[in-house]
Amino acid sequence: MKIPPLRFVAILLLVPACLGKSDSFAASSLVRVQGVVKGPLGDDFCPAAEITFTSKHLSKVTTSDRTGFYQVDLPADLYTMTTRYQILIGKTPHFMKQTRPLFRASSRRLVLNVRMFAERWNCDIGVANKSGEPVTREQWEAVAKNLCGYEDQFAISAEDGTPYELLIKYPKRTPKSRAYEYSGDQLATNAFTPVLVEYNLFTLTAEHVVYDLDSETISATGNVEVVNQLGENQKAASMTFKISNGEAVPVR
Hints:
14% of the residues lie in helices and 51% in strands. The chain is mainly beta and 252 residues long. Strands 9, 10, 11, 12, 15, 16, 17, 18, 19 and 20 form a ten-stranded antiparallel beta sheet that branches. Strands 1, 4, 7 and 8 form a four-stranded mixed beta sheet that branches. Strands 3-2-5-6 form a four-stranded antiparallel beta sheet, with no helix packed on it.
C-alpha cells in the first residue's frame, strides 16, 4: 500500500518541529550561575580566580575577569563549588581556597558571590595531657581546630534524600555541651575574618555563631549578614535559623 503524497509531506514537516521543541527544552534547563570573587577587604576584587563546579555528571571550570566577575551556564543538577585564588606572600605564591558544599542549581539564575577571607598562615601550639600520657593525634587535631581555625561539616539531608551538608568555617572554636561556639578573628591588617556558614544556597557571616547539635539551629550575633540565591543581602545585629530540609528557616 502506498502512502499518498500529501500524507508523506506531513510526516516530513513533523520532524523539524519536534527537533526544534527539544532544543528549546534543553536551553531552558540550563542554570546561569554568576557572581563576584572578592578578597579579604571586601572591596578588593580577585581577577583570574579559578571557579570549579562539580556534579556527578560533569566538572566545569571558569575564571573571573579583571573585576572579579564570573559567569557560567550549567545543566540543572546538584553541585559543589571550589574557588582558588593565587596570592604572593613576599615572593612565594600561595593559593587561597573557598569550597561551597553541595547545592541545588534548578532556577534559571543563581548569584553565588565568593569572599576569600584572610587565613591564619601560622599557628604553633603545644598540647599536653594532664595525666602525663602522650598526646594522641586526635587530641592534637581537636585542639588545633579550636585554636587555629578550620571548618566543620555536619550532614543534614533533605527529606528527598539529598545529602546536604552544613559548612561552618571559622578562625576560633569552643566546644560546648552538645554545641559549638565559633568566633571570628583579626587575621590580617584591616581584614577581620568572620565565621562563614553555608547550607545549600544559604550563606551567612557573623562575628559569633553558636550551632546547637540537637536542635540543628544556628544563632549568629555581631554584624550578621545573610545572602540569598539572588545575591540579595540582609543585615542585623543577631539572627537565628533552623537548618532543615535544604533550607535555613528564620526562628522568631
